[in-house]
């Protein structure tokens, strides 16, 4: 600050306004006649004043402090000169605002020059003494008045002392209070003069950083040089935002380097002020917030990690994935991939060995998975038995498959836990990340690939592809339309004839009801929607519809001239596991009028395996009812004979691969007779599926197999078609089917 502006600032602070000046004049009982009086006598005082200045400087030279200030003769000359001007103005006036201002200025200049107040007052006393001599020379009371002046001036010095001491005390108290408050707040204080870049910091400010207050420089460099390089731009922006009025206050958190070189988190708060000269000055506090930050970090960490395995969780992945995708868009970035891992049949471990054991397995699995990764990769536990791996910086997308294979291999090693040996496996879906992907899309793609891996038989990985996406889309569409198919009456049954092989030709003895979905103009085959019906549970209602429809239809055909016609209906395991299935079936038979012995229920081996005790009970009840049971697709499963013997089976349906494949494949040619023989040796009726050619029929006849079904006889037909081709009125002869007309003119695509 320039000395002129400093003076102005001080004068402003003294706060002498017109009112105050007027009051002072009134207190002194100052009249205009006083001014006139002084003005008139002014000229007579010149000599006295001269003498006074000489005496004053002589007098002051006797005092060590004062002598130092006025020792230089040139300075002394200048001072004497202005002293005279000062006293001349006292006599001559004019006593206006400028008078007050010039007096104040002189006082301040003296104070700054180091002239003490007591010398100042001694000067006034000496002055009055000199004037006294001039005016009342040889007056009898002159000496008395001079003594009085001394006493009064002494008292004046005391009065000034008491007032200023009291003011100083108040100031000190307030400072002490302030200092105590600061010590209590444990905050460091700073005061920064932006224009001159002068920074004052408190001892506590320095101590917080382990620094010695006195060793710090006086510029803001001692602050900013210690700010963490990553945080410095942010701090500067915050300061600027406040200085430009965009923020009401500076309030910013950042890291500062301490004397040990470690960083600690601090929070700076401050406000800027602009002084009369337009200079900005900012002051505030700085607190150590490391402890709070540490807790925040702990909470952050806890929210983003799985407590069981210590791996990142879904939230963590939500952070990592967008980062990885963003990095992919940088030029020169290498490939990245996402792996979605799901343990196969983990529920079984949890249910049979308990959750504690399940947890141990998960910990071990996560350890093994982590072991297959490189340092930059990320493994997260997505939930339950699902893990997601983010692989970055891959040379090529195929590298992800190698990682997946390593994981599968590592998981396949037996796991020893609490005296048990477990074997776990997982399925993995892989997708290569594209910079344009949204996180959600990438996860969905990996999930879809995982689904594919599960579908393909688990314990393997599958890669995401466009085709997968298209088929998933189709599947989704299909499923939502499927939900309404029953209500909209879109299901239809087709019937495929089952024939008895006789010495001469064949005889039409039964039908297998096969479900179709009439979706607009397309007839959707069951393999495309049965699984969806099973997954959604709809199979229960649809299966019920199939049973009653088939029973009614076959009963109608029985009445129309095929009294011994039997009806085969495929069952899903979910139907069998229904509690009231047997009652419901009895109801259907009763309503349709079909004899229980004319109904065959077809089930597969895998259905038998699913919940054997419950299934067994139901199957026995069904057998008791008189319904016959057929084991469908026989030969494709793995069940042991002994196992099959437990179930009340009547019929084996040999899978068509053993029939239509037999003529081309030598191995099958050897196996097929064995399978047929096996069924017969168990005392079961054997039905051969997939008879497509005359040779197949010949082969069956040679093997002594009595029942057959296949395109050679007829494709599945609509009820009307079947009625027309196979059901004849009772008085007409029954058809024996040896033609292959229906193969040449298929009714289905
Ligand atoms: P499935 O029980 O093995 O039924 C026989 C399948 O073989 C039928 O296929 C039939 O059209 C086909 N087929 C018959 N003869 C020949 C032949 O000579 N050569 C060839 N290549 N195929 C032949 P579809 O109708 O597509 O049915 C497929 C599967 O869908 C059925 O296999 C069955 O498991 C299931 N399914 C059909 N209807 C129902 C139903 O109402 N309920 C349940 N749960 N499943 C059903
Ligand atoms: Ca079947
Ligand atoms: Ca079959």
From TrEMBL:
Positions of the PAS domain: 174-246
Domain EAL: 475-730
Residues of the GGDEF domain: 334-466
Gene3D superfamilies assigned: 3.30.70.270, EAL domain, Globins, PAS domain
Residue segments, region Disordered: 727-749
PROSITE patterns: EAL, GGDEF, PAC, PAS
Domain PAC: 250-301
InterPro entries according to UniProt: Biofilm_reg_signaling, EAL_dom, EAL_sf, GGDEF_dom, Globin-like_sf, Globin-sensor_dom, Globin/Proto, Nucleotide_cyclase
Pfam families reported for this sequence: EAL, GGDEF, PAS_3, Protoglobin
PANTHER family reported in the protein's UniProt record: BIOFILM ARCHITECTURE MAINTENANCE PROTEIN MBAA, DIGUANYLATE CYCLASE DGCP
Name of the protein this chain belongs to: Diguanylate cyclase DosC
